[in-house]
Each structure stands twice: as C-alpha cells, then as structure tokens.
UniProtKB/TrEMBL annotation:
Record PANTHER family: PHD-TYPE DOMAIN-CONTAINING PROTEIN
A GO molecular function held by the record: nucleic acid binding
Protein's UniProt name: Integrase catalytic domain-containing protein
Species of origin: Araneus ventricosus
C-alpha cells in the first residue's frame, strides 16, 4: 500500500485542507402545509482531510455564485481553508476564475490575502 499524501498525513488545524464535492438534486419542502411544492436543492460536501470531519451546505442551484457563498460560509464557520481539492467541475472552475478576477485588483488583493479567500 502506498504512502498517504502530505495533505492527509501532516498534522494541521481542522478544515485547513478540504475536499469538496456536490451531490443532488434533493426534493425538499421549504415548510409544512398543503399545496407546498417541493423545491430542488443540492448538497455541497466539504471533507476535512486532517480529522475526517464533514461540513454540509445546502445550495439552491449549481451556479458558481452559490458555491462561492457556500465557501464563504465555510470560511466564517470553520476557518479559512489553506488548500481546496475538487473534481474540477464547471462550477468549481467558474468560482475559481471569479475569485481570481476579484482578487486581481490591488485593493481587494490585500483583503483577500488577509481575510476570507
């Protein structure tokens, strides 16, 4: 059996190295009552490589904007991840391009390096 990659073997704080994937769609009723139609939702799954913890976020659709919002909620609740691993889905690529474009301006670049992204 091969050695584990350094992202899984080296000790670090929880959720500093995460893997992300999306699952769904799930049919969810927003509230109880008659005549309430179920709506389509998706689950964004963040898996911590260090301690094997899981953080779930519900998304309304598969857009890059929804994923970026879920990533911000993860950063606020669990701390900013140092590395993010994904399967390079189109929404992950779109969110990556969007974050790089926003962080390219000098005033926002300082905020991005010091804060959330």
């Amino acid at each position: 059996m091969g050695d584990l990659p350094p992202s899984r073997a080296n000790p670090s704080r929880a959720f500093s190295k995460v893997g992300v994937d999306l699952s769904g769609p799930f049919q969810v009723k927003p509230r109880k009552g008659r005549g309430i139609r179920p709506m389509k939702t998706y689950a964004c799954i963040f898996v911590c490589f260090t301690v094997k913890a899981v953080h779930l976020e519900m998304l309304g659709d598969l857009s890059s904007d929804c994923f970026t919002a879920a990533l911000k909620r993860l950063a606020v609740r669990r701390g900013k991840p140092d590395e993010i691993f994904s399967d390079c889905g189109t929404n992950f690529i779109g969110a990556s391009k969007e974050l790089k474009a926003v962080c390219s301006t000098e005033s926002v670049a300082n905020l991005c390096t010091n804060e959330i992204v």
